[in-house]
Automatic annotation (TrEMBL):
Protein name per UniProt: Methylthioribose kinase
Pfam family, one: APH
Domain Aminoglycoside phosphotransferase: 29-274
Keywords: Amino-acid biosynthesis, ATP-binding, Kinase, Methionine biosynthesis, Nucleotide-binding, Transferase
Protein's organism: Exiguobacterium alkaliphilum
UniProt cross-references to HAMAP family, sorted A to Z: Salvage_MtnK
Amino-acid positions noted as binding ATP in the UniProt annotation, renumbered to this chain: N38, K53, E107, D108, L109, D242, P243, E244
Coiled coil region boundaries: none
InterPro entries in UniProt: Aminoglycoside_PTrfase, Kinase-like_dom_sf, Methylthioribose_kinase
EC number(s) per entry: 2.7.1.100
Family: Belongs to the methylthioribose kinase family.
Length: 384
C-alpha cells in the first residue's frame, strides 16, 4: 500500500482492518495533532481507544515547502520499543507500526495531560521530575558503550541513522538563532537584543563547541526532543512520547532540554518557581543517582574507580550548555513555546530577554557551574 495521509475515515477503516477495533461498531475519530510535524488521530469505539500518529511528508509547522522524511515515524516507534525494553512504565505501549504508511499506533493516554498544557493551567505533577530523571538515567546508560559493549552498541546505533531530523536540530538550535536566518521568529522590539547576541563572538564560539559535541558524540540513544510537550503525565504517572528525533548523541542533550523547558515554565508562572526549580534539582539528582547505580555494572575498563565521576562532570557541563541553547532558540527561533507566546506583550518581551540573557550565561559559564545547586541558583537569579 503506497503512502497516503490518513483522513478521519480512512484511519478508522485501516485500524478496523488490522483487527484493532471490532467490526460492526461505530467508531469516533478526531484529528488532535497540535505539534509541529504530524497528524494524530484519536479513535474510540465503546471501551476501545487508541491513537494513530502519522508522519506527513513535510513539516506541518511550515508547510509543504519544507519536505521531511517519512522515515522519522519508523525511528520513533523503534525508539519507543527500545525505551520500553528498559523502562516500560515511562512510555506508551506501541500497538502497531508501518514503515511505508509512516504511522505508529499507540495506547490512548486520554487520562494523562500534556505537561506543558497542564503547567499553563497551573497544574502540578509531583512525580514527574523523579520519573524523568529515572528515564534518563536508565535509558542513557542502557544504550551506551558502558552497558551494551562495542558490537551491540554500534549495531543499534546504525538503526537510528536520522540525518534529516538531526539537521533540523542542528539548524534550529545551534545555527539559525545566531545569524539573521529566515527561519527565525524575532519580535521587532527584541531586534537590538538579538543583534547584540549575533555580535557576541565568545558566545558563538561556545555554541559552535556545543554543536560539534551534538554532531560527533555518539554516547547513547537520545529522545532528541525532550520538552514538556513531549511528556504526558498524571499526578502519579509519566509517559514520554514523540521520540522521532531519536539518535545516538551526547548524554547531556536531553537532560539540558528538559531543564530548559522547566525553566521556561517558570517564565509563564512565576508563582511556581520554587516547584519548577526543585524539579530541575530532582531531574538532575535522580538522573545522576540512577546513572551511577547502573555504572556499578559498567563493562571494563569503564568500571575503573573515578571514571564515572569524570564522565558526570562532562555530562553536567554539556547539560548546562544545551539548556542555554534551548532557552535562546525558543525565544527567537522557529517553533516558539506557549510558555512565552501566550504572555501579554510587555511581560513576553521581558521574559524573552531573560531567556536570551540566561541562555547566554549558561552557555558561556557552563564549565564554572560546579554543582546542580549552583545551576539552580543561576536559573532562579532571573527577575520575574
Ligand atoms: C520543524 S520542527 C520544529 C521543532 O518542533 C519539534 O518539536 C522540535 O523541537 C523541532 O526543533
Amino acid at each position: 500500500m503506497a503512502y497516503q495521509p490518513f483522513t478521519e475515515q480512512t484511519v478508522v477503516d485501516h485500524v478496523r482492518a488490522l483487527g484493532l477495533i471490532e467490526e460492526g461498531g461505530i467508531a469516533q475519530c478526531e484529528e488532535i495533532g497540535d505539534g509541529n510535524l504530524n497528524l494524530v488521530f484519536r479513535i474510540r469505539q465503546g471501551e476501545q481507544r487508541l491513537i494513530v500518529k502519522q508522519a506527513l511528508p513535510y513539516a506541518k509547522v511550515v508547510g509543504e515547502s519544507w519536505p521531511l522524511t517519512l522515515e522519522r515515524a519508523w525511528i520513533e516507534q523503534l525508539a519507543l520499543r527500545q525505551f520500553a525494553e528498559v523502562v516500560p512504565r515511562f512510555v506508551p505501549n506501541v500497538l502497531g507500526s508501518d514503515r511505508t504508511l509512516a504511522y505508529t499506533i499507540l495506547e490512548d493516554l486520554s487520562d494523562y495531560e500534556i505537561v506543558r498544557t497542564g503547567y499553563l493551567e497551573g497544574k502540578t505533577y509531583p512525580e514527574l521530575a523523579r520519573h524523568v530523571g529515572e528515564f534518563l538515567g536508565e535509558t542513557l546508560f542502557a544504550t551506551s558503550d558502558y552497558a551494551a559493549g562495542p558490537i551491540e552498541k554500534k549495531r543499534k546505533e546504525r538503526e537510528y541513522y536520522n540525518p534529516e531530523l538531526c539537521d533540523i536540530t542542528e539548524k534550529l538550535i545551534f545555527t539559525d538563532p545566531y545569524k539573521d536566518a529566515e527561519s527565525n521568529n524575532i519580535e521587532a522590539a527584541l531586534r537590538p537584543d538579538v543583534e547584540r547576541l549575533w555580535h557576541d563572538k565568545a558566545l558563538k564560539v561556545e555554541v559552535a563547541k556545543l554543536k560539534v559535541g551534538f554532531v560527533t558524540k555518539h554516547d547513547a540513544l537520545l529522545h532528541g526532543d525532550l520538552h514538556t510537550g513531549s511528556i504526558f503525565a498524571t499526578t502519579q504517572e509519566t509517559k514520554i512520547i514523540d521520540p522521532e528525533f531519536a539518535f545516538y548523541g551526547p548524554f547531556g542533550f536531553d537532560v539540558g532540554q528538559i531543564i530548559a523547558h522547566l525553566t521556561l515554565a517558570t517564565f509563564h508562572d512565576p508563582l511556581k518557581r520554587f516547584e519548577r526549580f526543585t524539579d530541575v534539582l530532582t531531574v538532575w539528582e535522580t538522573f545522576e543517582k540512577t546513572f551511577r547505580h547502573n555504572f556499578t555494572n559498567a563493562v571494563e575498563p569503564f568500571d575503573t574507580e573515578g571514571y564515572v565521576d569524570d564522565l558526570l562532570q562532562t555530562i553536567f557541563a554539556d547539560t548546562v550548555g544545551y539548556a542555554g541553547c534551548e532557552l535562546i532558540r525558543r525565544a527567537i527561533g522557529l517553533a516558539g513555546v506557549a510558555d512565552l507566546e501566550t504572555l501579554p506583550e510587555t511581560t513576553r518581551l521581558e521574559r524573552k530577554r531573560d531567556a536570551l540573557a540566561l541562555g547566554t550565561a549558561l552557555i558561556k559559564e557552563r564549565h564554572e557551574v560546579d554543582s546542580i545547586d549552583d545551576l539552580v541558583t543561576l536559573l532562579s537569579g532571573v527577575r520575574v
